[in-house]
Amino acid sequence: MQTTLVEVTRRIVARSAATRGPYLARIARLLQRPPGPERMGCANVAHAFAALPAGDKFRVVAEKAPHLAVVTAYNDMLSAHQPYEGYPTVIRDEARRRGATAQVAGGVPAMCDGVTQGLPGMELSLFSRDNIAMGTAIALSHDLFDAALLLGVCDKIVPGLLIGALHFGHLPCVFVPAGPMSTGLSNNAKAKVREQAAQGLAGRAELLAAESAAYHGPGTCTFYGTANSNQMLLEAMGLHVPGAAFVHPYAPLREALTREAVATALAISARAGQRFTPIGRLVDERAIVNAMVALLATGGSTNHLIHWVAVARAAGIVIDWTDFADLSAVVPLLTRVYPNGSADVNQFQAAGGPGFVLRELLHSGCLHPDVTTVSERGISAYGEVPALEGERLRWSALPAASGDTDVVRTAAEPFSATGGLKLLRGNLGRAVIKTSAVPDERHVVEAPARVFTSQEALLAAFNAGELQRDLVVVVRFQGPHANGMPELHKLTPPLAVLQGQGFKVALVTDGRMSGASGKVPAAIHVSPEALAGGPLAKLRDGDLVRLDAEAGALQALVDEAEWAARTPALVPPEEAEGHAHGLGRELFAGMRRNVLSAEEGAISWM
User: Does domain 421-594 have CATH number 3.40.50.10260?
Assistant: First the structure.
């Protein structure tokens, strides 16, 4: 195994000792209880099963058959989640075939960040993760299940489901994906029209036509953003049926994989069986490190530097950005999927997909091989590809060579010897930058700052022609405390236009960028955030700022004495008022007050 992988895992184990031990002890105590229907009062049991068909009631109460919970994020606002509408029927049918029962224990909210980008609703996006975790806990609080099937794909939904499930760490759990939409207008062509629209060279009709051709049917958006990164990480952690991530929603193989998820949940739910696998034991320090490695090896979404910190903490494990950065220095970059390349996830899947990447990482010593997974064959099963042979589901080895070396490569011939992430440190705080999508010649930018406190102000300055020069655009008061840390993805087209005009451009913000962002070097998640007294609040227009992704530095080149003497700026009162009210934002005031920093996972439940 790779030495740094071992060393990082060891320090995570040591750092987590005070929290992981008590977490596992709680699981052990919960597993000493009798099964739910046996320990509950008659009225409780009657309420729980009142609407079940008579045969299912008899099976679960008298025969003590296994009983599965389904927690679903179904809605048809999200293209990725629309296919889930019929999943409960399939799951119930497969459970009955196998002598078990299943109930939809609850639904959780699922918002589409694509709908809310640049709008007030995006200020609820990050907090929706913890809301989903709470909804998962409410669903599972009925506390009479032997295992759970978790239905979710997109950005905050998978982390939220996983955090909620880990608070019921005694339950075996299997995640059930739904797959990506078919390929439409290419991501590069879509981005070009967006840049033309930002310059006034394309109108609303042209822009809407392009967007509609890109986002055109059921399934996950086809770029390698947060949603598809979720699926890669779940494969790396062994929480899917192997190879389930990127099969199309309505392919025959998809239903077979969903039925196999039911079989898997039942197989790992028997407490006396050899395969009994509570999720809280499966998600250990090694599994978390494997997920981090998979993220880095594929140039995945920067959102997971927040989400997986929170996921780990839900299992009593403490990780930080230094862990990610140290792993990134030794993990090879094996994929080029938009925005890190031109391919979409369907091309990635055709070239070998997650299975090819995980096999290469495993064989090169970059993954822990001895982890528990929901598959009885362990992590090696996730380096294979599923297929239907007649009506039977089979897995087979992938070819040794990539199906397309422009999309995925072997560990022996990677796109880069290091992963797609750098930690930046300096007098502006700690931040991260996704370097895998940024050409090497743009990894260092030194230019005067132009400071904004809102996306709208930046866009207005761009439209007024005020930004045509080398500059570091600073957008502050965008952290969790300030306004829920929205993604600032709508800033990518105008900044890319400036960069295309030959200017040196960088973005520095305590907000987030979408997993779909790239091109422009961006120091994001700056911590501590400006509203919490972070040094970003000291910056002024014209200050020289250096973003150096090679040296890992983020520095305001201001005289030290002057810098120390500066009074931090305050968030403009009208903006603070705007972020506090309207479109449901009042309901999240407690989360804004109590949330931890981005590097601490933006957790609101501790």
Answer: no
